[in-house]
Amino acid sequence: MSAMPTPVRSHPCPADPADLVGRWVRLDHGASAAIGVLDDARREGGSGGWEWTLRTAEGVLSGRGPLAARPLTDPAELRSARRGLRAHRADLAEYGAPDDPALTLAAEDLDLLELEAAARP
Q1: The organism sits in which domain of life (predicted)?
Q2: Alpha-carbon torsion, ordered 59, 82, 93, 22, to 10 deg
Q3: How far apart are CA 12 and CA 107, in angstroms?
Q4: For residue 46, is it within any domain?
Q5: What is the pLDDT of residues 26-59, one digit of tens each?
Q6: How many domains are contained in the chain?
Q7: Is residue 108 assigned to a domain?
Q8: Cα(59)–Cα(47) distance, integer angstroms
Q9: 97 and 59 fall within a common domain
C-alpha cells in the first residue's frame, strides 16, 4: 500500500441557509459580521428575506432580511471563537450559579465547535 496524497476537496456552502441551522457559522449582516451557532433561519413571507437567530458568546443576535451565512472554516476565526467561548465559559463557572443553564450551553457550544473543527478537512 502506498501513501498517495489525496486532493483537498472544498465543501460547498449550502445553497439554503436553513441547512446551516445548528452549526457554527460566520454571519454577515449589515456592515458587521458575527460568529456563533445559527439557532434558527426561516424564510419570511414572499419577500425572499430571512428571519434568523444566532447564538454567540456575547449573547443572542436576531434579524430579518438577507442572510449571508457560511460555515466557520477559517482557522483564525475558529481560534478566535474558541478563545471567546472558553473565556465566556470560565466566567460563567467562576461567577455564575452552579446550576446556570448558560454554563451547560457554553460547554455544549464549545464541544460542537471542537467537533466541527476536527471534521474540517
Answers
A1: Bacteria
A2: 50
A3: 28
A4: yes
A5: 998 777 789 999 999 998 876 678 899 999 888 8
A6: 2
A7: yes
A8: 27
A9: no
